[in-house]
Amino acid sequence: MKVLETQSAHLTNYEVFSHLESMRSRYHGQTTARVKSGNLETVMKELMDYFRASPSPLAYPTTYTPMTIRNLFGALRPYDLTKAEMMMLLNLRPNTVALLDVVIEELDARFSEEQQAEIMQIIVRVLGTDQTDEPGPTNGQLSTDQQP
Asked: Which of 54, 78, 85, 87 is deepest in the core (most CB within 10 A)?
């Protein structure tokens, strides 16, 4: 393999996941005439394990499709988010305003509370929600099984 152009594009986790799935199906069932590199197999396995582990949005039965990226970016265009912020929203699928604050730089200064709520609604509408969310302790309280 030869790298023709370094860092010519940034890929979302979904795009990498889709590419690995297509590579897996392409290599599946091939004879030993064309064997893939052992390193390639290791990298593919480790990446797929990472994507399928919680809290990754790809860990659950996902509703992501190739149009998901276009739909999310189009819906968020009026908010003038950077490309990196939109990619992180897609990769992390924040489910609270607190997590949104981690992804979007200077969230409180750039957006009103109404706009923050609208951004969260767009994320939920386009990307869905985490199916395994369980209500946990609130107001910063630790549950009885957690250590301070």
From this structure: 87
**C-alpha triplet 44, 23, 88: angle, nearest 5°:** 60
CA dist., res. 139 & res. 91, Å (int) = 27
Instruction: Report the alpha-carbon distance of residue 148 to residue 143 in Å, rounded.
Output: 10
Distance of CA 18 to the CA centre of its chain: 12
| Contact call for residues 126 and 75 (beta carbons, < 8 A) | yes
- Whether the CB-CB separation of 18 and 24 falls below 8 Å is answered with no
What pLDDT score does 135 carry? Answer: 41
With 0.85 as the threshold, say if the pTM is over it. no
pLDDT one-digit tens code per residue, 17-47:
878 888 777 776 655 445 566 677 788 787 7
- pLDDT tens for 66-96 read 788 889 899 999 999 998 898 888 888 888 8
Q: What are phi and psi of 100, to 5 degrees?
A: -60, -35
79: helix, coil or strand?
Answer: helix
